[in-house]
Amino acid sequence: MKSGKPASLKYCRPLRLPVYSQDTVTVARELLGRVLCRETEEGLAAGMIVETEAYLSSGDPACHASRGMTERNAPMFGPAGRAYVYFIYGNHFCFNVVTGAEGDGEAVLVRALKPLAGLELMKSRRGDNCRVENLTSGPGKLCRALAIDKRLNGHDLRKRPLWIGAGEAIRDFAVISAPRVGISVAADKLLRFYISGSKFVSRR
DNA sequence: GTTAAGATCTGCT
DNA sequence: GCAGATCTTAACG
Question: How many CB atoms lie within 10 A of CB A179?
């Protein structure tokens, strides 16, 4: 060990369960500035969450759970604080955090991170020549960079090898609300949230 | 059993 | 800015 852990790891203590049981929009905002940590045999990779989207059980046809429980979306109806990982467009995984009360069918999609630790590891997974701003600036990209796949579906996010850390104690950043990205229904709802001014969001 | 659409990314124009 | 890749899921017959 050269000079101890990177400073950021100090803030990787897992969030407690009650955080996730709040209403989904609150959790989507609350997760901004938190640290998503992923441990594999290759080492640790972590990034600060800078962009999220809320998907609601009621009045939200864009939500995977809007037509009831299926094999794919079952984790959304489980306890809060678990991962919901699904495969889309033949190429990509998307990572969500289950929220609300058990049986609700709501979740928060994590759309972008600011890389904090394991930069070289992320680059090797994403392909070299990948600029830092392009490493984790999208739901499919961050899953690739952190080696998140369906094996982590349903995983308890308080534990290794995938957890969400509390982040910095001081949280003074502005949050922008905007329409969600890539959906064809309920596109008018302002359920996308991101840290104002961050150059690591998926779109400006 | 078949089919159409999808919470995306990349490369090319 | 736009189209193609690529394949799982869920709806439909």
Answer: 13
